[in-house]
Design goal:
mainly alpha
Length: 185
């Protein structure tokens, strides 16, 4: 359910683009991203930083797109967001005692610290790759192709990346389940 809710702004953006134009789609994206931030604020009583950063970047670059009537700015939004995420994850290797993904997920997914570091690096590479890929698609293909690359293309890419983690993380998750079973008995 959360995945579908988090994907809603991309669907709104895509729908508004194909029904109207890039400027209507940009406005719809900004509104839907801030709507998502507000929804989570009221539903969970906390600010989702990734959603908030994405909404702020959309507001800045989308605002430039609308104000200057230049649709190139909104195409840079995914690259900037992916770059911010990659830098934040990379920076967590030198700031603090735990990498960012470990701080976010260790309660639900118990992994040894070296494994968290490897997973964190994998996500740094993924986001850096996605940032470069977005610019490459934007510069070398039509606007319609770029839109379809954004959705569903980037979601498919992320899904494949996450599934690729399964063989690597599977044994650690099985060990954690076995440990839980032993503790309950």
């Amino acid at each position: 359910m959360k995945f579908l809710l988090d994907s809603l702004p991309a669907l709104v953006f895509l729908g508004a683009y194909f029904l109207y134009d890039i400027y209507a789609a940009t406005i719809a994206l900004i509104v839907s991203l801030f709507g998502l931030v507000i929804f989570y604020w009221f539903a969970e009583k906390k600010l989702h930083k990734a959603h908030f950063i994405t909404a702020l970047v959309a507001l800045a670059l989308g605002g430039l797109t609308i104000y200057l009537h230049n649709d190139t700015f909104i195409q840079y939004k995914p690259t900037l967001v992916y770059g911010i995420f990659a830098l934040a994850l990379a920076g967590s290797h030198v700031i603090g005692d735990k990498v960012l993904l470990q701080r976010m997920g260790e309660k639900s997914v118990p992994l040894p610290e070296p494994v968290w570091r490897k997973v964190n690096i994998a996500w740094v590479v993924y986001f850096a790759f996605s940032a470069v890929l977005n610019i490459w698609v934007a510069k070398n293909f039509s606007y319609d192709t770029w839109m379809l690359f954004k959705f569903p293309g980037t979601l498919i890419l992320m899904f494949v990346f996450m599934v690729a983690h399964a063989p690597f993380l599977g044994r650690y998750l099985q060990e954690a389940q076995q440990d839980q079973s032993r503790e309950q008995n």
